[in-house]
Amino acid sequence: MSSELFHVIEPRVFKRELLDELCDITDTARALAKTKEGAAKLHASLADKRAMLYFTQASTRTFLSFNNACHILGIGTSEIRDPAISSEIKGESFDDSIRTFSSYVDVIIMRTPERGLASRAAALMDEIPRRVPIVNAGSGPDQHPTQALLDIYTLERSFAGRGGIDGKTIGMMGDLRRGRTVRSLCYLMKNYHDVKLVFISPPNFAIRNDIKKHLAQDKINFTETGTMDDALGSLDALYVTRMQSEWDVEGESLKVNLGEFSIGPNEMQMLPQEAVVMHPLPRGPEIDPAVDSDPRAVYWRQEGNGMWMRVALLIKIFGAEL
Q1: Among 34, 36, 90, 130, which one carries the catalytic annotation?
Q2: What are phi and psi of 15, to 5 degrees?
Q3: Inter-residue contact 155 to 165 (CB < 8 Å)
Q4: Which of 7, 111, 180, 190 is catalytic?
Q5: Alpha-carbon distance 20 to 104, whole Å?
Q6: pLDDT, greater one: 249 or 270
Q7: 289: buried, middle or exposed (CB in 10 Å: 19+, 13-18, 0-12)?
Q8: How many percent of the chain have pLDDT more than 90?
């Protein structure tokens, strides 16, 4: 394997070579899993490892995909999904809890409502004798690096006959200010040539300035618009996001006319025939279920890709050979 990987905290550490390698490992793992012998090989590859799933923020897809990725590789799992059932309710510090977990497992996969905790956990691990990898499975409204990885894989597979991600125009629509999936995906765009990003959002939910500054520094072309109809005809991919109402202050999400940032059969007619529509899920009214039958709607495939990319990530972290 070409390079090492330990902690997975934020997406900026991923270079093109590593992204391509992870996509290749994902393809290999999927192919192996199609046969009984291949599945057995996968299951034996990391059967000596144990994982802690520390998910104190609500999660369906990320939790289940990581849990099943571990099972595919033979990794034993334990979990905490509510801090009220851990010793934190007795006053144990976050740092002491993480250090305790590291005594029992070989990797800690964590999702928290507070930003920065995964980074803090990784810093702690780097200071103790038994250092284990920390994988950020979502930290507040900040970063979601493994979602960005599966999004890259989905885009690469969608554009496999069209030269990959290079040269494509990718629209990102919805609550861009608070959407950590969009933030993380933007950080990976520097690895691809001649990509153009189009941000489509209500003014109060526009992409944050720190992301725009990052894109400008890396000379990534981007534009912003508050009108969906102006952008759809030029896109190779549209990444739709929901309103992140869990971060609302005084019901600000309710003030948005979602009809102006929603995709239905009429809007699909404006998209090019080779374009794809993505969504990190769960979805709300921003994608009409009638769109599901359109072959350009790849969000259900995107969801399935998540488990396999996380299989690849664990293989890479532990240096397993397939």
Answers
A1: 90
A2: -100, 170
A3: yes
A4: 111
A5: 32
A6: 270
A7: exposed
A8: 77
Q: Give me the catalytic one of 7, 30, 49, 144.
A: 144
- pLDDT for the residue 194: 97
Is position 61 annotated as part of the catalytic site?
Answer: yes
pTM beyond 0.90:
yes
Q: Map 130-199 to HEC letters.
A: CCCCEEEEEECCCECHHHHHHHHHHHHHHCHHHCCCCCCEEEEECCCCCCHHHHHHHHHHHHCCCCEEEE
In the chain, the domains with their CATH numbers are 11-144+306-318 (3.40.50.1370), 147-303 (3.40.50.1370)
Output 46 or 177, whichever has higher pLDDT: 46
Other CB atoms within 10 Å distance of the CB of residue 121: 28
For 154-190, b/e burial (b = at least 16 CB within 10 A) is: bbbbbbeeeebbeebbbbbbbbbbbbbbbbbbbbbbb
Hunting for tokens 């981007």 — which residue is that? 222
Phi and psi at residue 173, to the nearest 5°: -130, 140
- The CA-atom distances, in angstroms, between 157 and each of 17, 23, 152, 302 are 17, 9, 9, 10
Could you confirm whether 62 is annotated as catalytic? yes
Annotated catalytic residue, options 62, 154, 181, 241: 62
Whether 197 has a pLDDT exceeding 80, the answer reads yes
CB atoms within 10 A of CB 78: 12
- Which of 16, 41, 50, 61 is an active site residue? 61
Q: Looking at the DSSP assignment, which residues form a beta bridge with residue 109?
A: 53, 135
Angle, vertex CA 219, rays to CA 214 and CA 221, nearest 5: 95
DSSP code of residue 63: H
Mean pLDDT of 213-239: 95
Q: Is 144 designated active site?
A: yes
Tokens describing residue 128: 């103790």
For the chain, what's the residue count?
322
Question: Which pLDDT tens digit goes with each residue over 288-306?
Answer: 999 999 999 999 999 999 9
